[in-house]
């Protein structure tokens, strides 16, 4: 990944991970990569990876099952126009 120096890394990784939830790469109910797997994929610290997972949960894009992991949340249906 090419890093933008003026944007915090957690925000850049969050943007990638949230896009994967929205575009269905991680379908609803699928377990997201662990903090360690995110560290390995993006070359970031575990603290940064945990921040990304926390932000995904706070945004409603993921939920945690204690002792199991973090999972992609079902996305709201788009209103019919």
The tally of strands reads 2
Order of helices and strands: HHHEE
Shape: globular
**How are the strands of the largest sheet arranged?**
1-2
% residues in beta strands: 5-15%
Radius of gyration: 13 Å
Q: Helical region count?
A: 3
Taking the alpha carbons of the first and last residues, their distance comes to 37 Å
Primary descriptors:
81 residues; mainly alpha; two-stranded antiparallel ribbon; 3 helices; 2 strands
Reconstruct the topology from this structure.
Elements: H1 9-22, H2 35-42, H3 46-58, E1 62-65, E2 69-72
Antiparallel strand pairs: 1-2
Description of the structure:
- The chain is mainly alpha-helical and about 80 residues long.
- The chain has helices spanning about 10-20, 35-40, 45-60; strands at about 60-65, 70.
- The protein has a two-stranded antiparallel ribbon.
- Helix 1 crosses helix 3 (about 45-60).
- The longest helix has 14 residues, at about 10-20.
- It is globular, with a radius of gyration of 13 Å.
- The termini are far apart.
- About 20% of the residues are buried.
- The model has no long low-confidence stretch (mean pLDDT about 95).
Concise account of the structure shown:
The protein is mainly α and 81 residues long.
